[in-house]
Amino acid sequence: MFTSEHHIRVRYAETDQMDVVYHGNYAQFFEVARAEAIRGLGLTYKNLEELGVIMPVVELQMRFLRPAHYDDLLTIRTILRDLPEDHRIEFHHEVHNEEGRMITTGRIVLYFMDSASQSKCLMPDILRQKLQPFFPITNSGS
Amino acid sequence: MFTSEHHIRVRYAETDQMDVVYHGNYAQFFEVARAEAIRGLGLTYKNLEELGVIMPVVELQMRFLRPAHYDDLLTIRTILRDLPEDHRIEFHHEVHNEEGRMITTGRIVLYFMDSASQSKCLMPDILRQKLQPFFPITNSGS
Amino acid sequence: MFTSEHHIRVRYAETDQMDVVYHGNYAQFFEVARAEAIRGLGLTYKNLEELGVIMPVVELQMRFLRPAHYDDLLTIRTILRDLPEDHRIEFHHEVHNEEGRMITTGRIVLYFMDSASQSKCLMPDILRQKLQPFFPITNSGS
Amino acid sequence: MFTSEHHIRVRYAETDQMDVVYHGNYAQFFEVARAEAIRGLGLTYKNLEELGVIMPVVELQMRFLRPAHYDDLLTIRTILRDLPEDHRIEFHHEVHNEEGRMITTGRIVLYFMDSASQSKCLMPDILRQKLQPFFPITNSGS
């Protein structure tokens, strides 16, 4: 399993008149947290795009347990439970506030796509090599 | 079943460098479509807030089937399959582009909450009366 | 002089915890109003981009006189006082609320740029022909 | 003069299909930079709101000199040239990219307002005390 944490301070623009973070803005928080997770591996999502791989989002699920407020310093955890085997990659996210309470969870599925041909592709080797150590091969046989 | 349709033109600001609508922005499209669905009933979501009822989003699920592009005129369908029985209301959304192709689907769950007490409440009567005619009571017994 | 009007309904996402439209969001309202002004001429900004012309914003000035609120139906006026003579085009915007009160004004300068060469260019002829009738040539000489 | 610097990493959501940061998003960057400037003084803008003072934006001016791109780490400088004497406060902002090139400048005017009465007020003493040391009283007479 690979996990990473990133902190995001809530902007005024991200609140709405209910005095909480507008629900749609969590998509951005997750995006930033994934980008930082990849940076933590010594790569950047920008690098991947420069290599000709884009990662469109195909599925997003979010549960809002508690509100976040202006100026809150949120902790966004990014979790990769399984090493991708095909063109799909699935991340889980958990958002905690400063009191340590979980306020939002998310699950997001992205595709690896070749930007030139616009067709699905496998996870780039450069990313696989970085992630592999977090997923030791277990000897499941007898 | 209650359904409603609303059109939204994609703004430049809503695109990203992948030349498509940023996935998180669909949350706004759904919000606008729900607001217009309620307006079509002769009410407004603003009215509900003035009556002391707020509707925080507790769950959001989206599937992105095809991209939307700048200046596309999208049709956002809002669907209420069941009349709420408690403090929850669940909408489904479908987004079609001008070629009639479905590009995104969504499911969103909101709570009815009393804004003063910040506690869950039932759907306001004024909204129930407007929605009731779309959900005829069926005689299911013998 | 060329003027055009477009209506925009304020989204929940566009408000902030001050219960008003977040000031930065007016940039989007102006963008939409300009796009609709061009559409009213029988063209689209999208067409211009397809012809290889992009229009980056180089200057934006906004004055906020009164707040706008959720669900307000705003009228955004787009004004072109002068026909562009070089690579610059300058629009003025005025935003009125439903009571007819002016709430925001804006001035924006964009460049015409050739997207291939990334160099400044003149206003495309196709747009000039549409705008010319609004700027009759006045006989200023003797 | 009081100056402060804050770094902001460009989000994917903040780009548009021109492959650059959408111009309207700089308003958010400036907002974040001002909030961090105040935090650097040992206060928060949130504190001020809790004390009953809100700071609506009444004027915003931006010049876009060069584009910013996805994943750029921008430096946002916040400058207060004069200590406010009345209900107005004026900040200047400068945005530099990682190569040290200035890409955007801004000037923003906000009002101090009493949130209860919604009337203009002076800068709160708690903020004045923090800023005063940056503005030594100069003996301009002979």
How would you briefly describe this protein structure?
The structure is a homotetramer of 142-residue chains. Chain A has 142 residues and is an alpha+beta fold.
Describe the model.
Four copies of one chain form a homotetramer. Chain A contains three helices and eight strands; from the N terminus they run βααβββββββα. By secondary structure, chain A is α+β, with helices and mostly antiparallel strands. The first copy, chain A, has one domain: Thiol Ester Dehydrase, Chain A, CATH 3.10.129. The interface between A and B is medium-sized, with 22 and 22 residues.
Itemize the secondary structure elements and their pairings.
Four copies of one chain form a homotetramer.
Chain A: E1 2-9, H1 26-40, H2 45-50, E2 53-54, E3 57-64, E4 73-80, E5 88-96, E6 102-111, E7 113-114, E8 119-120, H3 125-131
Antiparallel strand pairs in A: 1-4, 2-7, 3-6, 4-5, 5-6, 7-8
Provide the number of structural domains of chain A.
1
Rg of chain A, Å, rounded:
16 Å
Oligomer: homotetramer
| Average pLDDT level of chain A | 96
Binned, the helix content of chain A reads 10-25%
Secondary-structure content class of chain A:
alpha+beta
Please give the CATH architecture of chain A.
Answer: Roll
Largest interface, chains and sizes: A-B, 22 and 22 residues
Strand content of chain A: 25-35%
> Might you state the CATH topology name of chain A?
Thiol Ester Dehydrase, Chain A
Global morphology of chain A: globular
Say how many strands of chain A there are: 8
Order of SSEs of chain A? EHHEEEEEEEH
End-to-end C-alpha gap of chain A? 23 Å
Reading off the top of the CATH hierarchy, the class of chain A is best stated as Alpha Beta
Q: Kindly report the spatial arrangement of strands forming the biggest sheet of chain A.
A: 1-4-5-6-3
